[in-house]
Amino acid sequence: MGKDGHLLEMRNLRTSFFTHVGEVKAVDGVSLYIDRGETLGVVGESGSGKSVTMLSAMGLLPETGRVIGGEILFSERSLARLREREMETVRGNEIGMIFQDPMTSLNPVFTIGNQITETLIKHKRVTKAEANRKAVEILASVMIPSPEKRISQYPHEFSGGMRQRVMIAMAICCDPCLLIADEPTTALDVTIQAQILELMKELSRGRETSVILITHDLGVVAGMCDRVNVMYAGQIAESGAVRDIFHRPRHPYTLGLLKSVPNPNRIQKERLAPIKGHPPDLLKPPKGCAFAARCEYAMKICLASRPPSFEIGDGHNAACFLNHPDAPRVSM
Ligand SMILES: Nc1ncnc2c1ncn2[C@@H]1O[C@H](COP(=O)(O)OP(=O)(O)OP(=O)(O)O)[C@@H](O)[C@H]1O
Ligand SMILES: [Mg+2]
After folding, report:
1. Cα 127 to averaged position of ligand 2 atoms, centre (Å)
2. pLDDT of 251-286, one tens digit each?
3. With 60 as the cut, is the pLDDT of residue 2 above it?
4. Closest listed ligand to the CA of 216
5. pTM of the entire structure?
6. Ramachandran sector of residue 158 (left: φ over 0; alpha: ψ -120 to 50; beta: rest)
């Protein structure tokens, strides 16, 4: 656990890509945490830094990417200070990850069984026979029919939904205490999506696994998560319990996201309104609030300085000057 008893905690994490055109500040001061047994949602538009934040924690950044500041604490250890060998043990064994791109974790030239048993033998020091038995058991637990036959098939022999189940199986086969799922259902049709999410819910309940769920879909967050972090331009715009974020958003960006999705629980009074404009160029992030250029409430100070995270109450925080005690009262 982190110093405050959190399972995983990031403090002021900064990750940049050093490219031929300059430094891309992909993660720019992210602080977040997850506790044991919790499901945390991470939402935000494309390019807001969701994947890079998690890849930083897992030590899986591509070559041009580097963590340049901050701390990542997992079970009282600073992940950034671990050697690659130790980090390999954490990955797979303690933190499982379902990647946004399925082919990142599945090797097309090995059978599914081979890939799962290899992980088990490496991390759990079990015999080949035991690993085989466990692999069948795990495939069954993610509802893959005839797992004893499927185990000798290759990734291309599985449908998209089944492949996603295999990825979940691989991510949980060593019983990690944290599962990071990066857009685990985006590519799937709605029915399969619901089945996979239900499966993940059961896993997190049954095994008391903490889950970080990265998604574009606020509906998924409402159905699955305890808390949410809203990301924008490599920063956390707002964080809090799901009910606070959905019913009492205190950052105009969160409000914009909520207005841009249909809400099945409410007859939509207003038309759906996508947020106008584009996120800033992370090669040259603005001096003030990253959202100011698109914000209908922007004040002078928003252009001049970056808003700190204001505590609104009970775990609810928003990085927006409207929450300053002297700010004008606006109804969002
Ligand atoms: N290899 C790379 N080189 C340079 N910039 C990168 C690289 N990978 C990511 N970035 C930049 O980092 C920022 C954050 O990217 P990231 O993939 O974390 O976004 P995301 O929130 O996961 O988006 P999506 O919802 O599309 O998956 C983006 O501006 C992206 O262009
Ligand atoms: Mg991503």
Report:
1. 36
2. 999 999 998 877 655 555 556 678 889 999 999 999
3. no
4. 1
5. 0.92
6. beta
Q: Count Cβ neighbours within 10 Å for each residue of 154-164 and write b for 16 or more, e otherwise.
A: ebeebeebbbb
Q: Does residue 51's CB lie within 6 angstroms of at least one atom of ligand 1?
A: yes
Query: Residue 202: pLDDT above 90?
Result: no
- Both structure tokens of 221: 């967050």
- Please give the distance, rounded to the nearest whole angstrom, from the Cα atom of residue 16 to the centre of ligand 1: 10
Q: What is the pLDDT of residues 135-187, one digit of tens each?
A: 999 999 888 999 999 999 999 999 888 888 898 899 989 989 999 999 988 77
Domain ranges, ordered by start, for the chain: 8-94+176-323
Give me the helix-helix angle, 112-124 and 128-141, nearest 10°.
120
Provide mean pLDDT across the span 57-77. 94
Q: Residue whose CA is closest, atom 28 of ligand 1?
A: 47
63 CA distance to ligand 1 centroid (A)?
A: 14
Probe ligand 1: pick from 48, 61, 213, max atoms within 8 Å of CB? 48
| Residue 238, φ and ψ in degrees, nearest 5 | -155, 145
Q: How far apart are CA 257 and CA 185, in angstroms?
A: 19
For residue 267, count CB atoms less than 10 angstroms from its CB and return exposed for 0-12, middle for 13-18, buried for 19 or more: exposed
Q: Would you place residue 43 in the very low, low, confident or very high pLDDT band (cuts 50, 70, 90)?
A: very high
24: CA distance to ligand 1 center in Å?
9
In this structure, the residue with its CA closest to atom 16 of ligand 1 is 49
CA distances, 13 to each of 140, 153, 306, 309 (Å) = 38, 40, 16, 15
- For 8-94+176-323, CATH gives 3.40.50.300
